Amino acid sequence: MTDSKAAPSFEGLKVAALESRRTAEIATLIERFGGIPRAAPSMREAPLEDDSAIFRFAERLFAGAIDVVIFMTGVGVTMMIETLERRYSRGQLVQALSAATVAARGSKTVRALASLGVTVKAKALEPNTWREVVSALDGVYDGRLSGLTIAVQEYGEPNEQLVEELARRGAKEIVRVPVYRWTAPEDVGPLAAVAREIVSGQIPVALFTNAVQVKHLFEFADAKKEELRAALNRCVICSVGPSCSEAIVQHGLAVDFESASHKMGSFIHEAAGRALELLRVKRQASASRVTATASTATASAVEPSRPEYLDSRFMKACRREPVDATPVWLMRQAGRYQRQYRELRARVPFLELCKNPDLAAEVTVSAALQIGADAAIIFADLLLIAEPMGFRLDYDRPGGPWVSPRIESAADVGKLLRIEQGADALDYLFDAVRHARWALPRALPLIGFAGAPFTLASYLIEGGPSKSFRRTKALMLSDPGAWRAFMDYLARALASVANGQIKAGAQAVQVFDSWVGCLAPDDYCQSVLPHMKTLFGSLPPDAPAIHFGVGTGALLEKMREAGGSTIGLDFRVQLDEAWQRLGPRVSVQGNLEPAVLFAGIDTIRQRAVRIIDQAGGRAGHIFNLGHGVLPETPEGNVADLIKIVHDESARRITNG
Length: 656
Ligand code: CP3
What we know:
The chain is of the alpha/beta class. The chain has a seven-stranded parallel sheet with strand order 12-15-16-17-18-19-20. It has a six-stranded mixed sheet with strand order 3-8-7-4-5-6, sandwiched between helices. Strands 2-1-9-10-11 form a five-stranded parallel sheet, sandwiched between helices.
């Protein structure tokens, strides 16, 4: 069943396929349906070292002691004949086979026999399981196999169910003829690479076109089996048909989708039509396992032509349109105040988490759903871009994050400017945005983010957090030329970080100039503002851009001039006064003091209402904290705050 309204497409998803003989073909098909193929051969037929069973079978066949020969695969036909031609002529073989009843499973097997001139009396066609073989024989023998000696061409693993069923129907003897075995592909490198990408969460869809692929993935991939299994179970697993599905299930995996057609082309077509919806349902199911309040987690099967998130409260407020209730999300809504996050972090280091698009997307989505926010913010970090610039990041040492080596001089800046960043430096971040967008309910917008040049520069120069920013200011004041070049370089890099996320599916971006509040207004105007203009000027005009900083009470008008369609307010200003200063042509975001979340529910309500009243029902207010959620914040209070904002603002809007 494919979605009739939208052309089937994987929409840029990476799709794993382990097809061996038709690797190139399946890759082309995945591409044709909008996916990025990660195709690797997983198996190869190898002749048996001991082929005595084939010759024993042939002797009995020539003696007329075999009534039925079942060929299970086309390759089996070819390999058996090739082996026996060492002793018999092809003519002799065809004649002997034709004297028996020949059954064939699958159209390729029928074709292989036909090309030899052997007539197939029992054709077992789709879906090509052992059951079709039995019913094809039933058609010839009327369901009674008693007294027959039946030879079964085996390949790889013997099919015990077939053998048992033949015996149950009264066959006198079943002669097993193993013809070849499955072995590792010539080069297991590509298979191992695909497995690594699956384990690190880069690939959200896996296609299986036969049973051996699953087995070999576990056998030859050089990945920890449990990790691989867990990662695969987070993917959408598509199976070409029942036999393949059985093997998938035997390996402890769940089949999300089984094709109705058993042909590769239709399989990929169907999978492309279903993958996104299945992924969304799967991610939301895993998010709502920990979520009592995930009322928004309903998946819509049909993609509407205008994405629902464009008409969400958050996007409307960004555009200063009227809403039914004030939208609310919280900076650092995913983080250490959450038990679930702490548990995950106990297993996965922070940087690894950021670089695993699958996990990062899950953290993003589950945080937003769990607290009932009106937007999700991608789980990542402002400093990630420093890595491809050649810096090392350390989030584990207390008091950080730490950046090394520090920029110590104008000469260091000069060296940095020569580092060209590849466009793919933060691919994992863009993938995480893509994964999160697919997994989110359609009505929930996704916010991307980037640091601002000054705040990022402060980490690169100070080597970590700072109170005085004296090194940063020293460079800024003593070498304006180097500073300008440095800031321009960062502005361009950060614009590409933001744009990459918008392209990957983020609806809006927030630019964090967290520490710019340490600057005097004149210095801001001279040394920061022009570069903020460069940054905001490089963003698409139709994506809302939120411009946020801490302690920026003295800079608000200048930040507005620098850019952004929404200004983020910290809690040290009063929202109504700040909005007055900014003028009516921007929306504002903020600004509850984060520490209020440690107080009782009455205080939280009172303080939230105070801010809602300051906004006074004007279109264009997005409720948020004045800075990020603090680590020890009681989890329940966060969800309570969001509910309070919705209820209290909706009541005021209804009452006019
Ligand atoms: O808001 C969200 O939920 C999205 C995730 C997000 C993180 N960092 C995750 C994170 C966002 C938007 C950021 C932005 C960020 N990172 C900023 C600007 C926001 C602000 O606070 O003004 C800054 C300055 C950074 C740099 C950074 N990264 C700091 C100062 C820290 C340490 C502070 C802390 O909370 O530990 C980080 C690490 C970090 N970034 C964590 C998270 C969840 C904690 C890492 C952990 O799990 O140990």
